[in-house]
Design a protein that fits this description.
It is built from eight helices and seven strands; from the N terminus they run ββαββααβααβαβαα. The protein is an alpha+beta fold and about 220 residues long. It has one domain. Strands 2-6-5-4 form a four-stranded mixed β-sheet.
């Protein structure tokens, strides 16, 4: 059994399978975190009080794709993001980069009951766009995803996953505390990102154009 938390403006006793926003990071699903403090921040996306809904998830019979685990890399995560989120791609390199990443690095993720990986909120979404626009290197993207310490999200995707979750309690969240923390976390991530861009690059400078021109594959050792 695993404890999960879902931040919301409402108490959600029974998550509903098949409802939600299909354009979230990993598609249609119920998005949670293992960290209660993060759920409290997510509950206060606006300056209004909310709830950190706590659940227990029986994972014994479920399949889980760990995007930050062994065998996967940052471009697998980005490929799933590109398939589900809406990107405003205005430059030719961004368009080429999106298609190359989808064609080459998209894992077979749709049959998994659960997906666990980074959460692409506003700041992290902008880091991904910068990489696609050839504005930052692959190593800078890796580093950027660790800025702000947003942690990982766990997404329930299948009916089996929804059947395995049970409600424990709804913890009230004070927006006067947690909305400010949410904004601060995002601001710190953006400030650290700007600082990182002024630093002297370490290692090989690999851009999306490099990956396309050299025809990297999913098993490239540099990933």
């Amino acid at each position: 059994m695993n404890a999960l938390y879902h931040g919301s403006s409402q108490i959600i006793r029974i998550p509903t399978y098949g409802k939600g926003n299909p354009n979230n990071d990993y598609g249609l699903g119920f998005y949670c975190t293992r960290e209660p403090e993060l759920a409290k921040e997510w509950a206060c996306a606006e300056d209004e009080d909310g709830f950190a809904n706590q659940y227990m998830l029986a994972t014994e019979d479920l399949t889980c794709l760990h995007l930050n685990g062994k065998g996967y890399h940052i471009l697998n995560w980005l490929a799933i993001l590109l398939e589900n989120r809406r990107f405003d791609l205005s430059s030719p390199v961004s368009v080429r980069g999106r298609q190359y990443i989808l064609d080459t690095f998209l894992p077979d993720y749709k049959e998994y009951d659960l997906i666990e990986g980074y959460r692409a909120d506003d700041s992290y979404f902008s880091f991904s766009r910068a990489f696609l626009a050839n504005g930052i290197t692959l190593e800078q993207l890796r580093r950027a995803m660790r800025l702000g310490k947003l942690g990982e999200q766990v997404v329930l995707r299948t009916k089996a996953a929804f059947d395995a979750i049970s409600f424990i309690e709804a913890i009230p969240v004070d927006a006067s505390v947690y909305h400010i923390r949410r904004l601060s976390r995002d601001r710190n991530a953006r400030e650290d990102f700007k600082k990182m861009l002024t630093e002297t690059p370490t290692g090989e400078e690999i851009y999306i154009s490099t990956i396309i021109n050299e025809k990297w594959t999913n098993d490239d050792p540099r990933l």
